[in-house]
Design goal:
Largest sheet: 6 strands, mixed
Number of strands: 6
Radius of gyration: 25 Å
GO molecular function: NADP binding; phosphogluconate dehydrogenase (decarboxylating) activity
Strand content: 5-15%
Catalytic activity: 6-phospho-D-gluconate + NADP(+) = D-ribulose 5-phosphate + CO2 + NADPH
Protein name: 6-phosphogluconate dehydrogenase, decarboxylating
Strand order of the largest sheet: 2-1-3-4-5-6
Shape: globular
Helix content: 40-55%
Pfam families: 6PGD, NAD_binding_2
Order of helices and strands: EHEHHEHEHEHEHHHHHHHHHHHHH
Function: Catalyzes the oxidative decarboxylation of 6-phosphogluconate to ribulose 5-phosphate and CO(2), with concomitant reduction of NADP to NADPH.
Structural class: alpha/beta
Bound molecules: NADPH dihydro-nicotinamide-adenine-dinucleotide phosphate, ribulose-5-phosphate
Number of helices: 19
């Protein structure tokens, strides 16, 4: 029997992430306790950590040292409120509650407000790395009550992944809901990264007729260069896998409808709310929604015409163009994600460090990539960079890749291969670098039908024209 008040930290929710985070903490010498509604999970946790698994939150809290530290890894939304409601009367000023789930940042903001005056220190921490990362070292993005940081810093930094320079991929992000906002943007970028990789795969398959095993080699090769990243690496692995039943590539027997839990959608909604241009992130969400209407697509395929061209092109040359296009689209997606962070920073006065955030994503998380070190350096050169695209390093990379992105988008369009994220990345790039856009005509249209007024290039003020004589 454990003595009372002997545990350093307690996990609430011992599912995919919670149990592995608990094992990670246990492996780092911390005394971890855990609770889940399901008895089976409590027992699994107890047998794997050797700790007793309390049968109630009351028992769980009673076993913690003070100040008590609780890490919630329950599904986002109502379960977090339910746990907090039960926990609140059990806690004292100075106790710390960390929500490590994929919580919508506005919910974290609300909970912080609700806890104001209670003395309970609340932290919204984005955690990324999936099941494996939780066990071996995730990226952790905590934000909220800064008074909690000195107590939880050694705990969270101990279990976090480490970048190549040895820095832990866990650092204080900022006040309020900034930790969960940063995780939401991470996931928005994750959606775009995944979709552009899928489009690269689809173009190689549809235009070049490459087999899964051949594409696996291509992705493995790409993973040794500028595109080196967790997602490109797992793509090479996935494409090499054989289905034991059909004996063909496993990827070929997987249904082409993507699911989603909502973080990419939230990132896109927030981009619209804050007036940030993030089309590649949004198109990655829409690519999932159109994939979900599979029977409608099958019916439309028999009705809607497409191009009749057959593809001609030299294979190695096209593969290299797709590689460059993928790099260009990836940079555009990251640029959009960082624009979203910058807008939130202005809106909520969080004083975010974009370089530090890029540093947190260098290891442990799903979007970890070689590129993130370059992003970190870009913000070290200029913390107030207007857009990642105009950093001299990235402007140079885009110079080398933008033509390939155009060629690939043109190939996709001419041959009727859907590539929405590539296409929107190019449109984003061209719009952002356009000194002049057709919005002059748009303003005139608004003024025509709604007397909304327009500004003139040659003098200050707002003007209205009586368009209909
Ligand atoms: N899976 C992943 O790769 C990642 C997930 N996340 C986020 O982490 C959070 C947890 O995810 P994940 O571990 O995958 O989810 P799981 O569903 O695997 O685990 C959640 C656990 O919480 C339990 N639970 C629900 N309500 C309560 C409660 N009131 N008290 C105690 N336990 C409760 C659930 O029990 P029951 O099943 O009985 O409801 C379940 O065992 C989510 O917000 C998720 O979005 C973040 C990063 C990566
Ligand atoms: O947060 C994560 C990784 O960073 C999760 O894996 C997330 O749940 C994936 O999102 P979705 O289910 O919408 O694809």
């Amino acid at each position: 029997m454990e003595p009372r008040q002997s545990f350093d930290i307690a996990l609430v929710g011992l599912g995919v992430m919670g149990e592995n985070l608990a094992l990670n903490l246990h492996g780092h010498g911390l005394k971890v306790s855990g609770f889940d509604l399901e008895e089976r999970k409590r027992e699994s946790f107890a047998s794997r950590t050797g700790a007793a698994a309390p049968r109630s939150l009351q028992e769980l809290v009673a076993g913690l040292r003070t100040p008590r530290v609780l890490l919630l890894m329950v599904p986002a939304g109502a379960p977090v409120d339910a746990v907090l409601q039960e926990l609140r009367p059990l806690l004292y000023p100075g106790d710390i509650v960390i929500d490590g789930g994929n919580t919508r940042f506005s919910d974290t903001q609300r909970r912080l407000t609700e806890l104001t005056g209670s003395g309970i220190l609340y932290v919204g921490a984005g955690v990324s790395g999936g099941e494996e990362g939780a066990l071996r070292g995730p990226s952790i993005m905590p934000g909220g009550d800064a008074q909690a940081w000195p107590a939880i810093k050694p705990i969270l930094q101990a279990i976090a992944a480490r970048a190549e320079d040895g820095e832990p991929c866990c650092d204080w992000v900022g006040p309020g809901a900034s930790g969960h906002f940063v995780k939401m943007v991470h996931n928005g970028i994750e959606y775009a990264d995944m979709q552009t990789i899928c489009e690269a795969y689809f173009l190689m398959r549809q235009l070049l007729g490459l087999q899964a095993s051949e594409m696996s080699e291509v992705f493995a090769e790409w993973n040794r260069g500028e595109l080196s990243s967790y997602l490109v690496g797992i793509t090479a692995d996935i494409l090499s896998r054989t289905d034991p039943e059909s004996r063909g590539p496993l990827v070929d027997v997987i249904v082409d409808t993507a699911e989603q839990k909502g973080t990419g959608k939230w990132a896109s909604q927030v981009a619209l709310d804050l007036g940030v241009t993030a089309p590649t992130i949004a198109d990655a969400v829409f690519a999932r929604t159109v994939s979900a209407v599979r029977s409608e697509r099958a019916a439309a395929a028999g009705v809607l015409a497409g191009p009749k061209l057959s593809f001609r092109g030299e294979r190695a040359e096209v593969v290299e163009k797709i590689r460059r296009a993928l790099l260009a689209a990836k940079i555009c997606a990251y640029a959009q994600g960082f624009q979203l962070l910058a807008a939130a920073d202005r809106e909520y006065s969080w004083d975010l460090s974009f370089g530090r955030i890029a540093g947190l994503w260098r290891a442990g998380c799903i979007i970890r990539a070689r590129l993130l070190e370059d992003i970190r350096r870009a913000y070290a050169r200029d913390a107030k960079l207007a857009n990642l695209l105009v950093d001299p390093h990235f402007a140079g990379v885009m110079e080398g890749c933008q033509q390939a992105l155009r060629d690939v988008v043109a190939m996709a369009a001419l041959h009727g291969v859907p590539a929405p994220a590539f296409m929107s990345a190019l449109a984003y790039y061209d719009s952002y670098r356009a000194p002049r856009l057709p919005a002059n005509l748009l303003q005139a249209q608004r003024d025509y039908f709604g007397a909304h007024k327009y500004e003139r290039l040659d003098r200050a003020g707002k003007f209205h024209t009586h368009w209909v004589e």
